[in-house]
Structures are given as structure tokens and as C-alpha cells.
Amino acid sequence: xxxxxxxxxxxxxxxxxxxxxxxxxxxxxxxxxxxxxxxxxxxxxxxxxxxxxxxxxxxxxxxxxxxxxxxxxxxxxxxxxxxxxxxxxxxxxxx
Length: 95
Description:
Layout: H1 3-27, E1 39-40, H2 42-49, H3 53-62, E2 71-74, E3 77-81, H4 82-91
Antiparallel strand pairs: 1-3, 2-3
């Protein structure tokens, strides 16, 4: 096998492990679907809204002290209020 084929196979196996871990976590009741979460991490917001991580982090820093503040800081971690961020995006014409 070539290196690229090994890399693809490795990615496929890692993806399968990830899926199995998520299924097991859901069965134990530990995971909440993203669309049901009140607060999202930056990575979850990237997946949910389809906006890049850099853009979301820029929007967080630009709107921290404004009326449109949609985040809560927990230590160094920014949590995004999903409903407030949706309202912010609905009122925005371009990012």
C-alpha cells in the first residue's frame, strides 16, 4: 500500500472508532445532540452553523461588550448561546 492509501485507511478506522464511541455515549445517555444544546463550544458552533472557526472567534471578540453579546467565558473557553447567536446571524447581512 502507498502512503496515501494508508492515511485514508487510518482516517476511515479513526472515523469508525469515533462513531462507535458516540453511539456508546448516546446509549449511556451522556451525549446531547448539538441542536438541543443551549450552549455550544466553538467547535460545535463551527459544525452547527457552517462558519469557520476563525470567523466565529472574530465575531466573539468583536461582540463581547456589545448588545449582541452571545458568549459566556468559562476560563479560557468561550461558550456560545445558540439561540442568541442564531438571532445575531438573522440580523446580520454579511460576515
